[in-house]
Specification:
By secondary structure, the chain is of the alpha+beta class. The chain has one domain: Sandwich (Jelly Rolls). The protein has five helices and twelve strands. The strands form three sheets. Strands 1, 2, 3, 4, 9, 11 and 12 form a seven-stranded antiparallel sheet that branches. It has a three-stranded antiparallel sheet with strand order 8-5-10, with no helix packed on it. A hairpin with an 8-residue loop joins strand 6 and strand 7. The chain starts with 12 loop residues before the first helix and ends with a strand. The chain binds 2-oxoglutaric acid (AKG). 2-oxoglutaric acid (AKG) binds next to strand 3, strand 10 and strand 11. The site of 2-oxoglutaric acid (AKG) has 10 residues, from strand 3, strand 10 and strand 11.
């Protein structure tokens, strides 16, 4: 049974093992629908004036708005990360993602690792709206975080230049991950994922903070600042 949204989640051994084996873990009801409405209003307020073709925005640690600086350190998130990757959690950056009726694109298959390299990072895709196959929920390939994949670079207005070409994934098992608002997908930066297009004409918001294990040296040069939680 799902825990109440304000309680800290104690993961089962099966959930931790599943994360290691599959490269992702879905937790429903991590946050309440009311909280997600507030996060969405805050995100909209921050980015609405700057919406471009991409709909993906990046807030580095040093520039994240105060509301979200607090949100990324919420114990409900950080306690799960501690159980999955260890006690030393370091926040790096976060992305509000808007797929409006005008921004219908499906994000292509990719590993986030292709964008930053270095030590493993972990992200959490948090549904600020109910996310369905019709409005652009995520698709993942379980176990793909253990494989090596080559990314092609394709010029893109959508901020997803690095991508794995569809035919390289022939035969892979694909899992679509619908979520109610307040649900979250914790995932490894080598997990191959993409999203469905948003065909509904309605906004679909998500929020994706990224972390690493502070005790592991990281050669990635993408982040100039970070925050140990
Ligand atoms: O939310 C989406 O549509 C996809 C986002 C994504 O894959 C990413 O930012 O890495």
């Amino acid at each position: 049974m799902a825990a109440l949204s304000h309680e800290l989640r104690i993961l089962s051994l099966n959930e931790v093992a599943s994360f290691d084996q599959n490269g992702f873990l879905v937790l429903h009801d991590l946050f309440t629908p009311d909280e997600m409405e507030q996060w969405k209003a805050e995100a909209r307020n921050e980015v609405e004036q700057r919406v471009n073709a991409s709909g993906v925005f990046v807030w580095m640690c040093e520039a994240i708005p105060p509301f979200f600086a607090q949100a990324v350190a919420d114990e409900r998130l950080v306690s799960v990360l501690r159980q999955l990757i260890g006690p030393n959690i370091e926040f790096l950056s976060a992305k509000p993602v808007l797929k409006s009726g005008k921004i219908t694109f499906a994000s292509p298959w990719h590993q986030d690792y292709a964008y930053w390299g270095g030590a493993t990072k972990y992200s959490v895709w948090i549904a600020l709206d109910d996310a369905t196959p019709d409005n652009g929920c995520l698709k993942v390939i379980p176990g793909s975080h253990r494989m090596n994949h080559t990314h092609a670079f394709v010029e893109s207005e959508n901020g997803f230049g690095n991508r794995i070409l569809e035919n390289a994934l022939d035969g892979c098992v694909v899992v679509t991950v619908p979520l109610n608002k307040g649900g979250a997908i914790f995932f490894h930066d080598r997990l191959i994922h993409s999203s469905h297009p948003n065909a509904t004409g309605q906004d679909r918001w998500a929020f994706i903070p990224t972390y690493r294990d502070a005790s592991i040296p990281d050669e990635s040069t993408v982040w100039k600042a970070s925050r140990v939680l």
